[in-house]
Here is the input.
Amino acid sequence: MGFMIGRLGQTLIVLLVAALVSFMLFRYVGDPVNNMVGQAASLADREAMRTQLGLNDPVAVQFARFVGDVLRGDLGMSYRFGQPISDLLLQRLPATLELSLVSILLAAGLGVPLGVWTALHPRSRSAKLLMLASLAGVALPTFLIGIVLILVFSVWLGWLPSFGRGEVVSFGAWTTGLLTASGLKALVLPSVTLGLFQMTLIMRLVRAEMQEVLRSDFIRFARARGLKRATVNYDHGLRNTLVPVITIVGLQFGNVFAFSVIVETVFQWPGLGLLVIQAIQFADVPLLAAYIVLVALCFAIINLIVDILYAVIDPRVGAAQLARGGHA
Amino acid sequence: MSETPEGADAPDHPPAWWRGDFVHGFVRSPVAIVSATIVAMLLLLAIFAPFVAPYDVRDPAKANVVDARLPPRSTGMFGDQYSLGTDPQGRDMLSAMIYGLRTSLLVGLGAIGLAAACGIALGLASGYFGGTIDAVIMRAADVQSSFPAILIALLIDGITRTLMDRATHEALAVPILIAAIAASFWVQYARVVRGLVLVERGREYVLAARVTGVRTVSILFRHILPNVLGPVLVIATINLALAILTEATLSFLGVGIPPTQPSLGSLVRIGNEFLFSGDWWISLMPGGLLVVLSLGVNLFGDWLRDALNPRLAS
Amino acid sequence: MTTPLLQVENLRVEIATRHGDLVAIDDLSLSIGEGEVLGVVGESGAGKSITGNAILGLLERPARKTGGRILLEGRRIDDLDEEEMRRLRGRQIGAVFQDPLASLDPLMTIGYQLVQTITTHLDIPRDEARERAARLLAEVGIPAPRERLDSYPHELSGGMRQRIVLALAFCCEPRVVIADEPTTALDVSVQAQVIDLLKRMCRERGTAVMLVTHDMGVIAEAADRVAVMYAGRVVETGPTMDVLRAPLHPYSRGLMASIPSMRRAARDRARADLPMIPGAMPRLDALPRGCAFHPRCPVAIARCARERPPFVPAGSSGGACWLVADGASGEVPAHA
Here is the structure.
């Protein structure tokens, strides 16, 4: 339990720091008044505006107000788009989430079995080939993969679209491309691009972990007890491998979030990533500030979930704190 | 009363380093030789760019817009030879790529160097002083390592962009980029160095020295820093590839090197718009060069890590 | 002499390295009878564990068996395929390894691991297997055995874990058990209990036990006979008391002399230090010519550096030494 409280505390601190950075950015960069009042306004008018906006209050008060606003969902207005930022974010969120989820499923769905296979048959030719190919995943930058895929599948073969989401279906605030043919086609190249790097990562991770696990004493003891090979490899081996792997895959979700920025740029995918690039290019400070808070929140939540998941899966984790002074 | 058995272990002096396992392993491994050669060649190319590149593409005014988007092995309006074609601004691709390579290596090496320096300093402080300083630094490290490098670099670059006007930012683009990328890599170095400091602090000769009044700081510096070089080198080589790719990615996104200065990433971005017109070379060639560079560095880094590992363990 | 339950004849194990094949076990022979505990003792690296692994068929690359035979109840088991060998393991041959915490799968309960082993080899229904597991836990001295079935390994102490490992080794009533350093990772106070338990379990079942250890005290406690290994060979075997009191081989003599003993300390009050055998056991890639021990041997003769002495039986004992072959034997010397 103490472990939980510690983690929550750490999360809160991270969020506060992110909020502070965001606030500093928002408040001190550029002049909000200028943007609202225009050049012709007199000094007196500006002062009045400042007081009205609460810009003359002590910093701490302003920060508290900022945090309050954020918690209420009011993230200010975007300079560039002229819309409330929270609306913008909600608009774009489904696109990014859908892309991320599909990529992770692809990556894990292929990465885990391939990793297990190469761990169990390390000397086979296909295993060596796969490991070599996985090097490509590490050395090739994501944006290049996207471009090459576009070149092959859109320009030369013309099978798949190279930009946009295709037709989307709305369910209230959510929009999905999974229910239309064009939506699905549009999803293929971006999710493969995003997922390829993750897949090679997961494959190598699973392979390394599994090889490590297969070398451990309890595997040897399981064999010495004459358990069937499948039981040894999967029941004992795979289960122990998956424990650290699951947590890392969970953390990969955060990575996917970051890399979606790249993929969305390559494919002009209307998600959060594209939004932040536009925010940077047009110095849209409120949007950038809001993005920082959003990112911090997402990562904090992901990390928290992963930690909880780990504690649930591994019976040793809670006990680890207690056994500090105990057995060898 | 016992003689040393025939063929038993030689006494504990390790052989001279050029005869040791390291060089022996290097010469025996084709991967190491090939990757090292590739990296060395690219490095030389980058350093001697002004002498090797057929055209000086650093000055945008010098480009002939008339010669825009010519395919490889073309001749321009005024008789200029373009072995790898030109980009939409009429710049020679080969030269642009060589200068872009130079930028990539400059930023990559600079970022890793800065990250290592800061990381080592913070690791030393963290391990030596302990207490609150250690706690703060390690917490920061934990938090930061959960964020991917690209995001950190992106946000830092974005923030500095909003803090200064366009002209200043463009002039300072390279140092800012180096700092932004370095900021995402310092953690590994700090952790390794901190670990080594903690180990050394507990050693008996340190405790003995402290009793006799020798300043721990000088001991730590005399003994830690030499030991640190090995692991740091391994981490640095592995990170270098990622740093180079991060710079390329940021430039591709339009938030790295400004478009007026040559960079492999921005070349790819420029070429992206012309994929459907069939001008594939503008994107694919710089992309290819990037891949060769990153593969070379990656392979060499992997080999280096494996080669130094058993020695690190001792 | 009872018919041996387990026989190893001229076993040879080689390890493939970049520089060629190293001989890890060279012409090793031993046998264990029903209900007998054979202690296999030697320094780290002498090849004790490899012998155990070879018998279990668990030799891992790059080590492989290149010669000799292994017989269980008179039938060869070293030439069986993987599936047949798997069926033997756990059922006919059990194993106990050194680190009890590492031997148990951390993610599964004790009960699960026991039931899994039992149902793999014996065709009995699950709840009967669970009953059997609970009875085994009671037999090895675990309090509240039925509740313990649902515990995880990390929730128990080292001694309890090793008892569970013993339960797992014996759960299908094997004929032979290979115990590889079963007490090394345990607290001294717990070691004696575990050894007693092992002795009791194999006496009651008539199991043959190969007890591998580097601890002479454990040998003295538990072994009926002992085989001394050095650099991949057996250099001496015999009944434990004989080998302890009147070792034939100079290496065994050195080992016995280095055991701290209350009686001897009282006798040689002038000497405060424990005699050691100078030097170290040679590495596999640097084996000396002739007898592997001769560089460290206090009584080596010229022949020892030229020819390797064969193992010469001497009644129920035997040694691999030219001096033994020529009929000499000695008692524990005052100093090496």
